[in-house]
Specification:
CATH topology: FAD/NAD(P)-binding domain
Mean pLDDT: 94
CATH class: Alpha Beta
Largest sheet: 8 strands, mixed
Order of helices and strands: EHEEHHEEHEEEEHEEEEHEEEHHHH
Number of domains: 1
Number of strands: 16
Radius of gyration: 20 Å
Strand content: 25-35%
Shape: globular
Structural class: alpha/beta
CATH superfamily: FAD/NAD(P)-binding domain
Bound molecules: flavin-adenine dinucleotide
Number of helices: 10
Distance between the termini: 59 Å
Low-confidence stretches: none
CATH architecture: 3-Layer(bba) Sandwich
């Protein structure tokens, strides 16, 4: 029997992979998503905060049809938030209006899988991809699957990226917990020696909060992430119902997302806004473009590099502003806490917000 040749095989069924699958399958391609996890989205590895669709329209003004892309169902939302507090070491917050959704991320990712399936994509779960050679994907059990186009959406450890792209990203280690209790409705970001080179967060959920922290090791003076995390978590009293960890790519997008018939999307391409850690919605923006361009490529021969062009048009400026702000922040956060306290004031408040929301700090940027 002749082996099946899929139009598109996607490694990883997270937000990037499932969204690529959704849009490619919608346009009639045969699509298979392979994920090492038995149940995609589990275990939880996330702070679970996304901006509302209105906030996304302000944050990414060149991205079209935001409401069509982000159809977060009610059961995937734990709570709505209205404020963000940026908190320096003094504990005195700078307060901003910010519409956010606190997700039930596991349900959120499962809904994205369901959406992809309802458009015709197929899923193979509970088996890891070991290798990729030419048009073949080699699985852990030795079986081989063939595809015209292969997408690496396996997150920061994606096997396609590791084998065929020789570039490195700055990956920030992160720890988080879910804690029961009553928390304020605002989402909080804490800066300073509490999380050297990174930040700590308290994101309220229904009946509790998602509390986490990420650092840049080179700023941590030899102390481990565990020590910073334990110190920060011990400030809050409540029953810990879950503990998790992960890694966030924080150096922004890599230069090329396409090599021959290989395409990267989501964390594997560095699609996280480094100045605020947003990766879920950004992976989905990349996934939609990738899915659309791959279908046009298979059907009409549109070059795959069109994906990079559309990404640049929709997200290039936002990503560059975010990278610049992250670099500036990395310089600022080398200074002692007393300096950061002075730097976070009423006069700098609008600039700090511009940095977090990926806008140019000064007109000529
Ligand atoms: C602790 C933490 C907190 C975060 N908090 C937030 C937040 O609050 N808001 C936000 O917007 N973003 C947050 N992020 C970032 C966000 O989670 C990612 O940017 C987003 O998940 C990227 O989606 P993705 O589909 O590219 O990758 P992932 O969601 O990582 O999905 C990759 C998938 O690929 C599969 N896979 C990997 N390797 C293989 C293989 N070899 N074979 C088969 N399958 C494979 C994995 O099982 C996984 O399902 C956080 C990240 C971390 C680690």
């Amino acid at each position: 029997m002749e082996e099946k040749l899929w139009d598109l095989v996607i490694i990883g069924g997270g937000p990037a992979g499932s969204t690529t699958a959704r849009f490619a399958a919608k346009n009639g391609l045969s699509v298979l998503v392979i994920d090492g996890r038995d149940s995609i989205g589990e275990p939880l590895q996330c702070g679970e905060l996304v901006p509302s669709n209105n906030e996304m329209k302000r944050l990414c003004p060149n991205v079209p049809d935001i409401d069509e892309l982000f159809k977060t169902p009610k059961n995937a939302i734990s709570q709505y938030t209205k404020e963000m507090h940026i908190i320096p070491p003094s504990g005195k917050p700078l307060k901003y209006n910010f519409e956010g959704l606190m997700l039930n991320r596991v349900i959120h990712d499962q809904e994205l899988v369901r959406l992809a399936k309802s458009n015709g994509a197929e899923f193979l779960t509970g088996i890891r991809v070991l290798d990729i050679e030419d048009n073949s994907i080699i699985l852990k059990d030795g079986s081989v699957i063939n595809a015209k186009i292969i997408v690496g959406a396996g997150g920061h450890n994606d096997p396609l990226r590791k084998k065929h792209w020789k570039v490195k990203s700055l990956n920030i280690p992160v720890k988080f917990i879910l804690m029961d209790g009553v928390f304020s409705n605002a989402v909080e970001l804490h800066f300073g020696s509490v999380a050297p080179g990174g930040y700590a967060w308290v994101f309220p959920k229904e009946g509790g909060a998602n509390i986490g922290l990420g650092i840049q090791r080179k700023f941590a003076k030899g102390q481990s992430l565990n020590i910073f995390a334990d110190n920060f978590f011990s400030k809050y009293k409540g029953k810990v119902s879950f503990e998790g960890a992960g890694s966030l790519p924080m150096s922004g997008t890599i230069k090329t997302f396409v090599k021959n018939n290989y395409v990267l999307v989501g964390d594997s391409a560095g699609m996280v806004l480094p100045s605020n850690g947003a990766g879920i919605t950004i992976a989905m923006i990349g996934g939609r473009i990738a899915g659309q361009v791959i279908s046009e490529h298979i059907k009409n021969g549109t070059p795959l590099s069109e994906y990079e062009k559309r990404w640049e048009h929709q997200m290039g400026k936002v990503m560059r502003n975010s990278q610049r702000s992250f670099k500036l922040g990395s310089i600022l956060f080398r200074f002692p806490d007393w300096f950061i306290n002075i730097a976070f004031n009423r006069l700098t408040k609008p600039f700090i917000w511009k940095a977090i929301t990926c806008r140019p700090l000064l007109k000529f940027f």
